[in-house]
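I have been asked to look over a protein record a colleague put together. This is what I was given:
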Amino acid sequence: MVSRTTAGELGKPLAGWRLRLYTIIFEADTRAGRLFDQGLVLLILCSIAAVMAGSVQAIAAIHGRAFFVLEWFFTIAFTLEYGARLVCVRHPWRYACSFYGVIDLLALLPTYLALLVPEVHALIDVRVLRLLRVFRIFKLTAYLVEFHSLGRALAASRRKILVFLSAVLMIVLIMGTLMYVVEGPDNGFTSIPTSVYWAITTMTTVGFGDITPKTDLGRLIASVMMLLGWGTLAVPTGIVTAEMTARRMGPVPTTRTCQECLSEGHLPEATFCQNCGARLPPYMTDAATGR
């Protein structure tokens, strides 16, 4: 009976502390929401840096215990954040099955699974995918401006190029970590930074050949990296070209989130969700909250 009541409470409209927590965690149009997202991104970057540094044997031999403590600190912090997200949404299971919900869970599992399978620990760099939340902070508003000259197009597209480079860095980081697990030090992949170096040279089609995969699975991953690199070379040019041919400014996106389906990007004046049709709560900004 208690569990049924609890489930029913979580399905009711948000109010009180749950609504305040929801606004902070899921929306970045208030000062508290921006600070939360910025702090989360900083925490993710620090955790990834710690894992990368810990994979270097010379550093790990000296600071191994510090890396162990840091890893569990980051894991506990992310676990509390994941629990807070489940508590403050109307439908926890719906959030858990969403894209960001799955990514948040994957960011936690490697540390706990490493207690049983130590090799899984290297896959903890999947946390880099959580940096996709940076889009909520910047909102990409500068990318929708109309341009009439090459100079203005280059100036305006610098953020898009930065986002593109960030996506490339995420790919090489994940693929490099995967190659570090598959090939290992015996085949020249002595650390995650070394493996990331291989991924960069492969994806940019440079291919120095100083580090090469020896296993069949490693060669398959290398082939995928080569195809990815071949397909992404023209992206920056396409970004600038698209900016030069833009004719009009689109609507300004926000981080306004639907409490039913958790979709973002609704206009400030919108009344219903563009995805599921549910009625949207009032648009929360610093001016609306009085902060």
Residues 109 and 198 are 27 Å apart (CA to CA). Residues 1-10, 139-148 have pLDDT under 50 and may be disordered. The chain has two domains: 1-139, 141-251. The chain is about 60% helix and 0% strand.
